[in-house]
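Hey, can you fold this one?
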Amino acid sequence: TQKQQPRAMPPSDNTPNVTTNTNHEKLTHSRGTHDPMHSELCSSPFPLLCKLLDSIPYVGPHAPISISIPIASPSLFTPLYGIYEFFKRSLFHALHLILRAFQHTFAIVILTLITGIAFVHDTMHYNFNVKLLKTVLFSFTKRIPHDNLYDHVKSQGYGIEDCTVHTVDGYILTMQRLKKSPESAHGTKGAVILQHGLLNTSITFVLNSRSKSLAFMLCDAGYDVFLGNNRGNRYSKRHQRLRPQDIEFWDNSIDEFVLDVEAMYERVLALTSNPEEKVVFMGHSQGSTQEFAALSSNSKLVEDTKLFVALAPAAYVNPLESKWLIGTSKLYQWHTKAFYTLVGFSEFMPAMEWARPIVPPLIWAHLGQVMFVSLFNWSTVHWNEEFRPLYFQEVPSAAGSRNIAHWFQQVATGEFRKFDYGAKKNRLKYGQDKPPRYPLEKITCPVALCFGTMDRLVNVDKVKKVLPNIVFESELEGYYHLDTLNAESAHKLLYPPLLNLIQNLSKKQ
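Sure. Predicted structure:
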């Protein structure tokens, strides 16, 4: 057996060894991978500076060294290490604040420009914007009777309770379950899930009065009604290990919303009185999109679905008409990092969330309406003026920037595919250069399509060519994208035929 050669200098407790290098690597890895501030900055216009900061050598008890030199006491270097980390962290924090300020400023400038253009447009047509003047004058004295979902539902005489939903990737969602009255039992005719659209919340299904809202009419008819909320909106901001301040919390697109749908189905079937009863799913806009994606990816959901009602079905979208949206879409296609730098690397335009509680409700509602009308060329002529401020107190709601980016991809390609990470990452994730499309032809459960003639955002013709089992179609004259839910006349023109359809399908099954 070969004898080991004695070392020139025996190691001592005061001699740093190679394990300190491992500790340093772990420290750097932790700072670079899991620190949201560091990750956001390195994805911003400052990546070279971040790499430079990470490469700066430092001395101290955790410094990697290749020569073992006895040191009297490593505590002598601890102050230097602490000072180094303090200044480095302070610089990161300063850059992060600069980036956040830039994003908030951009959001405020864009919203101000949109509002200003709309104001000038109204002034040119009416010589004086009397409506906006009245809104400003009465905003500080006139209050909204019920400024949140729960108070509004109770004011209409219904009961409401929260249901917690856990997704497989750790998100904790909140669904609201309705009852005819606070004391009554839940409906027994079967479960109905109502799912909101982009930048929206569950309030969109109870916006009007007792006799005119879709959710209330379903509840009165004896159905067990559940209002869904996607990850990230004001009712679903929880996660088992992440916080809304973390970039990873917002790293979602339509692909991940499929997990929300699957979790909602599982929870609803577990709560209903008859587990063998199939679910009726009604989704508006993006709510229909994530159901299209879920049903085409999961045959078990198809079996559990009695009827899928797609309100303003948004599997395929038409080219954008707004110059603001066209410009933002082209920016994303031209330079992805520039897009995320402007709108946010995590939450989409977070300035809207912190501005909402500051601005008086009536002014905020008017600005929200102006923004939607200007961006999408929509009209709210069919809406109930009384409940409009309540709607825009929750809309636009929070969403992730990658979710918005996924929609820009859909607009650019005109196809319904999974998120496009680029050819290199696509090969790693999907095994092909392009993201796979969602096979809508696999959706064999009954489907109902409801849309307006003035809704130029969605392409219904493409959907109709692919779906194999369309049992109902309603084209509403003069309706815009949001009117299938928010129009006062929908309770006469649209909802009764849908209730009859559900009842007839229940008899057949």
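Strands lie at 159-166, 171-179, 191-195, 224-228, 238-239, 279-284, 305-311, 447-452, 470-476. Let me know if you want another pass with a different chain boundary.
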